[in-house]
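Here is one chain, start to finish.
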Amino acid sequence: MSAVPATAPSTASIKVPGFWRRAIQHRSFVIGGVLTLLLILAAGVSLVWTPWSPYEMDIASKLQKPSAAHWLGTDTFGRDVASLLLVGARASILVGVIAVGIGLTVGTALGLLAAARRGWVEEAIMRFADFSMAFPAILSAIMLTAVFGAGIVNAIIAIGIYNIPTFARITRASANAIWSREYIAAARACGKGSFAITMQHVLPNISAVLIVQITIRFAIAILAEAALSYLGLGTQPPQPSWGRMLSEAQTMMFQAPLLAVFPGVAIALAVLGLNLLGDGLRDLLDPRLARAR
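Its structure:
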């Protein structure tokens, strides 16, 4: 009689009605979701409408205070601050999505390979991850800038490379725990190969961990992009960026302190929202915490 493989109890499976019922009662998830939605909404609105052109300078109207015409005032070049913030949200999301996508795709693949093959393959991948973590995003961007010049593309590549070892280590640790389960042994006994087991049993069971990590790394990517733009290594003029708005505002701290407050608050709220969303998802997707609630 042929053995029948046990069904893998996926920790990522979610009963939708029950999940959302618990989600709306979870304070961190709700607050984080609202703040993240506002970030996405700001970026989406900027694609079709802004109060003023974020690229149009009007020196005669520079450093105006908030008014009906300019809701958040104008900067040192007479540009509308509200418009700059809306378009800056678009740049932050673009960098976050692509950079985290690079880290997720490459890092998860390496982590799954390390857990499936073990031995020298796992050791080589983990040592590569350790080596990569020695080069923070800002340092990597400085090296890339020295060779290829400053720009948003190099910033994305630097942040993406910085994310790879994090996803690789988390994926490998989570996948190793799944490979030790009984249903994996049953699947092997039925003749399934490592690739099939990885795709059918391991990856679905660690997806919850990866989802939570995506939100956390997204927040870090926004911070890294702001820092790189502040240093002049990220988004380049005339494209608006929250980090460069802070850099331009530092020379006007006494004359117009609000120029630094608005982008600083935008960065803080975006990062706070994504971190709270990640904490909420971690609680909601953890099967032990889900049963306790």
